[in-house]
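just leaving the lab so this will be short. what follows is a protein written twice so to speak, once as letters and once as structure tokens for the fold. can you read through it and tell me how you think this chain folds. thanks a lot i owe you, the record is right below.

___
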Amino acid sequence: MAEVLDRHARWIKGQPGGARANLAQADLEGADLAQRDLRGARLVGAKLARSRLSGTNLAGADLFGVDLRDADITRANLMQTDLRGARLRSADFSNANLRGADLRAGTLEPGGAARRGSGPDAQDAEATRQAHRTALTRLQGGATAESGIPTDLTGAVLAGANLTEADLCGAVLQNADLTGAVLTDANLSGARLNGANLTGALLDGATFDNADLVGTRMVNCDLSRAKLGSACMTRPIDSMGSEIQRAIFDHERWIDSFGQRGERAELDGTDLSRADLRGVNLSAASLRGANLSDAALTGARLMMADLSGANLEHANLMGADLSGANLSFARLTGADLTRVNLGPAEIKDPSGRPTGRSWAANLMGADLRQAMLTDSRMVQANLTDADLENADLDGADLAGAKLQRAHFKGKAPRRR
């Protein structure tokens, strides 16, 4: 590594014996590359999860398909960097310079500087294409889209980052922190920003056409010069009709009074798509066959709720409590279940005292393809016949879970 970095430094300065750093597919997890000058370096498909790149100069570097999950990239220079198809979940880009960075989905078309016509010569371009093809092959085990492998910035911190003219078309920015970020003339067409925080962000000339803005926080943002096009916006509860509002209000009274006031919500088959239900308490509610696709449910309490057959595709359930819930045959494709509690619910008597018994969550036959289950708790959950193809189970607790005939891409996750 020391020799590669030394030769790269000489290459940057045009000195004899210099050579551009080529660390494609290298395993550099946890490496300390802070303050290094890696302008133009090749890091295609490299594994840099949990690495330190604070203050590093990566301007014009090829980071196609790189794994930078949980990495420290604060104050780094990533101007015109090719980050297509990169895994950047929970990475910290605070105050980083991403001006003109290419964060579109990973495909074999030219990206980064090459896209602007200032790329390498024909021979070098073919070598780059081959490296990208290899990286794409390795990424096939992750979530895919028709237009390529989307760049994943789920939960990433981009507070104060400069994203002027950055191309984030189709990027996944779910629950990302973009407070105070500069998004002037950035392209966010088709991006998923549900649950993201854009408080105080500069959005002059930013394009949000077909972007998912359900549950996106945009306090103190001037949208007068932003291009919202046909962006998908949140449906607040007060826009859904008096019956739904009353049902939720009466249900919360029913919960708070241990059934003495109000009444249990019966919302079977109700259209709650794109609804803003963050922090709502619908524990023990009946939502069988309800449409909750793209709904904002972060921090919601749904203990022992009946969601059997419900549509929760692409719903944002980050941090929700679904202990003891019935999700049998529910559709959860692409849903964010990060840090969700799907463990057993404690059964209490009518006065609220514990009985010493519990009720396991039921996900029998549930469709969890491409769902994000990072650090979720699924202790004793019934996952019989569930489809977990390409689901992210990193850090998930499956102790005592029933996994008979559950479908996984490759090997089933190891129980704790």
Remarks:
- Strands lie at 212-213, 232-233, 345-348, 354-359, 387-388, 407-408.
